[in-house]
Amino acid sequence: MASTRGEFSSRFGFIMAAAGSAVGLGNIWGFPTQAASNGGAAFLLVYLVLAFSLAYPALMAELIIGRHAHANAVSALRLISPGALTRRIGMSTGIIGFIVASLILSFYGIVAGWMIAYFLASLAELLGLDGAAGWLTTFGLPRNVLFMLVFMVLTVGIISEGVREGIERWSSRLMPILLVTLLLLVAYVLTLDGATDGLKVYLLPDFERVLSPKLIISALGAAFFSLSLGVGTMLIYGSYVSDRENLPALGGMVTLVDISIAVLAGFLVLPAMYVALNNGVEIFNASGALISEDTLIFTVLPALFDTMGTAGVVVSLTFFFLMSIAALTSSISMLEVPVAYTIEEHGVSRKTAVVIIGALIAGVSTLILLNFGELFGFVIALTTRYSQPLLGFMFCIYAGWIWHRDSLLQELRKGYPEVERGLFWKIWPAYVRVVCPVIILAIFAQSIWG
């Protein structure tokens, strides 16, 4: 069954694809600003601990279920369910998961389109096309719809080629480009006046805030969401992993790559914010708090680039190229979730499924743009604040409580025969049964009641 569905051809390909799914816009702009707003290095320290104590176990739940079933989330949760009731609940969870993944992609495609527009605006400015650059950076329905469609066409094009020729091939190309681009930007920004102040905020901890409930819950949320957990993207990628692979090791590598890029992004964004402050660009709001993430990306950083002359245009071009790549590596995993379900449950060809689902999601994106003030924030809250934590909770419940322990152990033995003697098996089963669900519910409660 796995061979007819497609399978990652190499460990490197899987790690790049899974890390690409996890590394998105949130890692590059969300994590650094959360760190800056929550005690800098204190937040960083707590985040690193929680990423391996929460995000990794939850990631493993999805990967193991996916690899065992070699199927989409609906089929996978149905397969591991022992009774009629748990099968129905599992199928409902899988269906809600691909709907949520589609809704996330509907607003993600809009934001990613803005990134492409700003990238092209920098290119236009380098070529002296100031009128085009102005149009590309002006919020308006024609621009927003056009570049949302451009981004969706890119995503559809990659997914339509399948697992090896599409997802794996392009992730293996795009992720190294993303990493090199990020490193080059970090190296340059750290040479600018004011960057040291940003580094101090990022690296010097305020230890009084380490035990702050607000900081801990914020770090928990950042760790959970940074790995794209809760909507089945990692489950579907796990379903394309060979039975020969050591899943705990693979999951650890994905977690390490994702966290490393998020932390590295902090060395870019926080110093850049304080370089902007040094150049007279305001980064704090009237109450003294750091400005919001979207204002940072589309107002503060472009204002910083404007103060840097021609070098600023080149840096802007490089930065928005980086953001576009990060968006694309995440979007392909989101689209694969409903596509895999449609192919396997309804017998539709991959290209047909991709085009139809891509068009439907683009239609939802257009609807959001036509009613931007009412729908954009609503869809983000519905999917990321409410649905994603609850879906992550359900995946942990199925891995920890519903799936028979012996069957789960047998799955892990396929690529790791001595798993019972390792630290992973001594800790993970209890962790995914008790600790992860409790922590995920804490994140959910915090998102509702603050």
Automatic annotation (TrEMBL):
Ion transport among keywords: no
Protein name: Sodium-dependent transporter
The species this protein was found in: Parahaliea mediterranea
Signal sequence coordinates: none
Keyword set includes Transport: yes
SUPFAM superfamilies, A to Z: SNF-like (SSF161070)
Domain of life from the UniProt record: Bacteria
Subcellular location: Membrane
Topological type in the membrane: Multi-pass membrane protein
Gene Ontology annotations for the cellular component aspect, listed alphabetically: membrane
Annotated Pfam families: SNF (PF00209)
Residue spans crossing the bilayer: 12-29, 41-59, 95-121, 141-163, 175-195, 215-237, 249-277, 311-332, 353-380, 386-404, 430-449
Alphabetic keyword roster: Membrane, Transmembrane, Transmembrane helix, Transport
